[in-house]
Amino acid sequence: MTGRAADLGMLHSWWRSSLRVRVITITMVLGTVLAALIGSVVFGQVAQGLVRQAVETATLDAAQQARRVQEQFEAIDQRDNSSLNTAAFETVNLIAPSEQETRGVVLARALSNERDPRSAPTPAPTSASTTSRRPCRRRSTPTATTSRSW
After folding, report:
1. Are 150 and 84 in contact (CB under 8 A)?
2. Rounded distance between C-alpha atoms, residue 102 and residue 57, angstroms
3. CB within 8 A of 112, min separation 6: which ones?
4. For residues 92 and 107, is the Cβ–Cβ distance under 8 A?
5. What's the mean per-residue pLDDT of the chain?
6. Which of 22, 27, 92, 117 shows its CA 20 to 30 Å from the CA of 37?
7. Which tops the pLDDT comparison, 123 or 110?
8. For the segment 29-59, what is each residue's pLDDT rounded down to a tens digit?
9. CA-CA distance, 115 to 57, in Å (whole number)?
10. 117 contacts 109 by C-beta, under 8 angstroms
């Protein structure tokens, strides 16, 4: 114990007697703390900018896709359920192919659409179709505001 106390006493007297050691140590500690603080602030600002840019890009892309889909549905001449369902499935697969896991599609009626919805009865799944069907996990919300309905 006396050896350890002697070492601490010697270290303390060395610290008190050497101005060079104190200046270098304090400069290194303050420099490290300031570098860590500045790095944290810069990292946070860069991360916020990247997220903001990604959100803006995704929003613009979704708006473009919604306009494109609306134009495609407005161009459909046939109004029977089979044609409309085929067009809807083709549109969904065009925008969000099955191998793409990050994009989803939701087709919704326009708010100004006052026509009665048309739907075809869905056939009961067979054993072959249930094994080949993949669950739909992708969703997004392109909105359309035109008055044409399907």
Report:
1. yes
2. 14
3. 145, 146, 147
4. yes
5. 76
6. 22
7. 110
8. 999 999 999 999 999 999 999 999 999 998 9
9. 34
10. yes
